Structure formats: structure tokens, C-alpha cells
Amino acid sequence: MEKGDKKVIRGWVFYDWANSVYNLVISSAIFPIFYNKVTEAHYLEQKGAVALKENETVIVEFFGSQISSSVLFSYVLSASFLVVAILSPILSGVADYSGNKKRFLQFFCYFGSLSAMSLFFFDTNHMELSMLSVFFASIGFWNSLVFYNAYLPEIAFPKDHDRISAKGFTMGYFGSMILLILCLVWTQVLDYPAKYCFLFVGIWWAGFSQITYRVLPHNVYNRKPQKGIVSKGFKELYSVMKSFSHNKDLKIYLYSFFFFNTGVQTVMLLATIFASKEVEWPEGGDTSGLIIAILLIQILGAAGAFVMSKMSEKIGNIKTLMISVFIWILVCIGAYYFVYKPFDFYILAAVVGLVMGGVQSVARSTYSKLLPETEDHASYFSFYDVTEKIGIVVGTFFFGFMEYFYGSIRFSVISIGFFFIIGFILLFFIPKNEKLLE
Fold first, then answer.
1. What is the CATH number of the domain that holds 327?
2. Which of 71, 107, 297, 403 is at a distance of 20 to 30 A from 166, taking alpha carbons?
């Protein structure tokens, strides 16, 4: 394979188009609304009631225990992130040793897409089996990204990483937005059941990924694994771990990434909960209002990824990240003090959209540029992925704890600002690096 091949790069970018529908339709928009409706309807049916009382919590049965439906959902997601954090370093070591990144990418893609499609059979009478679909789909999506991201330094030169990474995120935003609009037409205009949208996600994800698999190279470095593939995979991983102690730039960047990305992911995952609780929506307008906000974020996220990639070309990656993280700090302050009406939330959503795609895109390309000359890209990117997943677990727990401690979700939002502040400060300590100015 020739590095910089435009056909290969286009194919790599297309996986963002393929898989981002899971993140939007399943994680953010259609499935959370579907989940809330079916669990609430089941709870009311069990009670013989017509509507929830003020501040009443929806309770579901899970392995014989009574638990809040929203708490169960967050626990299942947290558990999936922990599994990914444990699995990805091990599997990436094996993938690097064997040269099988493409096979691992395909496996988790198909595993995730089939799990997403199995949500079609979601049944509140069998919550244990139903939540397995949520659990497995999350593992498939996030584990596939480890091997997908690891291809970036292999297919493109460092000077092109910002642009290509941004192009991937932009394609992802547009692709997922198209399917979300189709799902909204399906459910709101044609009045068909939302559960069919989960089939659409799986088919879209697995189907469009074929464009990627057709051109992505297999076994780039022509590895010829022998016996003991797992133990040698562990050795591969251990050598990568040791290298972090000799790479000051990369080590400090990972610390900074942990904090600012914890803030980013927590806000993205829990913004809809904040909006549904704290924004004064008109009667029955919370669902449509939130979906409008999600679409706004998608459109501006694509624009933000492009703008920040251009900015990084002019002023460098670290300064671009510092500007983006500083804006995120202002977002937390703004949400705490000013967001009460739908218009306020739309303004905030617009700002979030602009910096959301940009910070994720530049963060990925910055890490890629800081990697040493190596053939162990999957192992290195597994550490990037583990840092992200542990951050999500920490951030979501911290968010919930602050609401419990202070009795207000607004304190949760303002407290997340401290993660951004620490990440922002650590960016100052990354030594000047010519790669980050390319």
C-alpha cells in the first residue's frame, strides 16, 4: 500500500459515514425516546395507572430487583465502556502482532450492527435479554473505533491527519443526520413503529462499511504470526506501555485528553437529560425540541470539524485545542446561568455543535501526529480509546453524584467545567513539537 493513496483514504473516511448512525440514532435520539416511552408504558400498565405523578420515577424489574429505568440504562452503558476499556488493549496487542486489524474492525462492526438490529425485539417483559442488545451494540461500536482510528497514521502523512480526521467526522455527521431525518419521517409522518429504525441502523452500518473494507489494506506490515499469538500480543502491548515513559509529549497529551474529553463526552451523553429537566418546554414539546437541537448540533458539528482543521493548519494543533476547550468551559458556565427557555438551549446547542466536531477531530489527529515511528498503531490507539472510556465512566458518575449531592442537575453541569479547566491547563505543558505545527 502506498501511503497517501486517495482511494484508500476515501474508503477509510466512509467508515465514519457508516458507523455514526449508531451514535446518533441509537445513543442520542430515537432509542432513548423509545426506551423512555416503552418502560413508562409498561410501568403504568403494571400499576394500573394512566399517567405518572409529579416527580414519580419509572421502575423496571431487572434480575429480580426493582431499579429506575434511567439508572439501569446508564449502568448498562457504563458496564459496556468498562468492557471496552479492558478488551481493547488486549485485542489491539493481538491485532498488531498478527497484522489483523481489518479482521477485528470487521468483527466488531458486524457484532455491533447485528446487536443494534436486535433492538427491534426489545421487550419490557424480558429486560435482561433486551438490555443485552444495548450492551453488545455499545461494545461493537466503541471497539470497532479502536481499529478504525489505528489506520489513520498508516494510510496518511502527518501533515494530512487534521484534514482527513475532520473529513471523517464531517461525513459521519452528514450520514447520521440523513438517516435520522429518514427515521423521523418514518415515525412522525408515516406513523410507523420506531423499532424499525434500529433495523435501518444495522443495515446502514454494515452495508456502507463494505466501501471501507473493499479498499482498506490487510496486514499492512506483512506480519507473519507464529504460535502463542495471545502471549506475544501481550508482549506487544507491554512494549507500547514502556514507550510512554520515554515520550513526554504523548504522555502529557494523554493526561490532558483524559480530562477535556471526559467533559466533552459527559456533556454529549447527558445534555438531553439536562434539557428535559431544566428547560421550560411548551406542553408536549420536549421530544420535538430535543430532536431539533440534535439536528442543529449535527449540522454545526460538521462545520466545526472543518473550521478547526483549517485553524490547526494555521496556528497548530495545541493552540486550536486550547481555544476549543476554553469555549467548552464557557458552555458549562452558560448552561448553569442562562439556559432556561428553548431558545436559550438552541443557542447553547449551536455553540456545542461548533466545538463538538472540532475538538474530537483535532484530538484524534493530534494523538496520531504524536505517535513515534511504529508498526503498533492499534496498540497505541487502544490506550487512546481506554483513556476515553474510563473518562466516560468517571464523568457520568461524577455528573450523577453532583446532582445527588446538591439536588440540582445545574450543579452537575457547572462541575463538569472543572474537567475542561484541568485539561486546558495541561495543554500548556506539552513541549513545542514540529509535528503539531504541520
1. 1.20.1250.20
2. 107
> What residue numbers bound the domain in which 122 lies?
6-50+58-217+228-437
Q: Are 436 and 271 a contacting pair, CB within 8 Å?
A: no
Q: Are 423 and 261 in contact (CB under 8 A)?
A: yes
**With 90 as the cut, is the pLDDT of residue 413 above it?**
no
C-alpha cell at 169: 467526522
**Beta-carbon count within 10 A of 129 CB:** 12
pLDDT tens by residue, 6-28: 899 899 999 999 999 998 888 87
What are the beta bridge partners of residue 59? 68
Q: What is the DSSP string of 129-166?
A: HHHHHHHHHHHHHHHHHHHHHTTHHHHS-HHHHHHHHH
Does 122 have pLDDT greater than 90?
yes
Q: Tell me the three cell numbers of residue 178.
A: 440523513
Q: Is the pLDDT of residue 223 over 90?
A: no
Residue with the bigger pLDDT between 225 and 406: it is 406
Q: How many alpha carbons lie under 13 Å from residue 81 in its C-beta half-sphere?
A: 23
Q: Of residues 206 and 275, which shows the higher confidence score? A: 206
Residue 245 lies in a domain: yes
